[in-house]
Amino acid sequence: MILGNKHQRAMIQGRNPLISLNGEVLERVAVAKNLGLYIDEDLRFSEHLNIKIRNAFYKLKVLYGVRRFLTEKVRQILVESLILSSFNYCDAIYGPRLLRKTENAIQRVQNACTRFCYDLPRRSHITPVINSHKILNMKSRRNLHLTMMIYRILHGKCPPYLYEKLHWQRDNDTRRVINKWKLATPKHKKAGFRGCFRFAAAKIWNDLPPPFRTCDNILGEIVFKHKLYNLYLSLQIEAARFVYAK
Fold it and tell me: Domain of life here (predicted)?
């Protein structure tokens, strides 16, 4: 597999490189599966998410056959456990690399699940319903999971191979820490770098209000997660109000 953007891959493919192992030429593939995650050449994870989306709509179609026998609470449990939870796996990896069309496709899955749970018409607008029931949309869920992962890495200092990639902001001349609670954002020249772990982790952590970034283990992970959930919910509701006000 050749990783890179379309231009980079074209340059390498033009040379027709052959890689051999123990005398056997390795077959080039466009998609490879590793630990349940389908990895494609441009690291957009489109193949992985397309499979998840197809499976999600199939499961939802099956659930519609028994919807009239289910209470609203049971529908919510089934939707979360059988459909939406499948998008939680590796979302901290694929989240920063999503294309807009893939992001919208994932959100359409949650919209369809919301219509299933609350008996909403097909053309009804879903955002007010999600906000009124204090449910995070799919983008906010990904942000919550990534932020919690960064919180655990910073406070637990493990796994070491990820903790070593995160650094606090330092003065370029004295190299001393100038802001203990903000992560250093790595310099980059291309937009594709923004999808890497170091940049995504620094950005999502630095975007938190100071009380969240300065919190210590005194609060505990459970309290921090609860406050973080409410923060992303309030930002989600505020963003919806701004859209409707335009």
Answer: Eukaryota
DSSP state of 113: H
- Give the predicted TM-score (pTM) of the model: 0.89
Query: Can you give the three-state secondary structure of 214-231, one letter per residue?
Result: CCCCCCCHHHHHHHHHHH
Per the listing, tokens 């879903």 go with 126
Instruction: Give the single-character DSSP code of 20.
Output: E
Report the distance separating Cα 76 and Cα 68, nearest Å: 14
Decide if 106 contacts 117 (C-beta within 8 A). no
Residue 21 has pLDDT above 80, yes or no: yes
Which SS3 state, helix, strand or coil, does residue 38 take?
strand
Show me where the domains of the chain are located: 1-43, 45-133, 142-245
Q: Are the beta carbons of 38 and 48 closer than 8 angstroms?
A: yes
- Residue from 95, 100, 135 nearest 114 by CA: 135
- Residues with Cβ within 8 Å of 135's Cβ and at least 6 positions away in sequence, in order, are 114
Q: What is the pLDDT of residues 128-181, one digit of tens each?
A: 999 999 999 999 999 999 999 999 999 989 999 999 999 888 755 455 555 668
* Percent of the chain whose predicted confidence (pLDDT) is above 70: 93
Torsion region of 171: left, alpha or beta (phi above 0 gives left; psi -120 to 50 gives alpha): beta
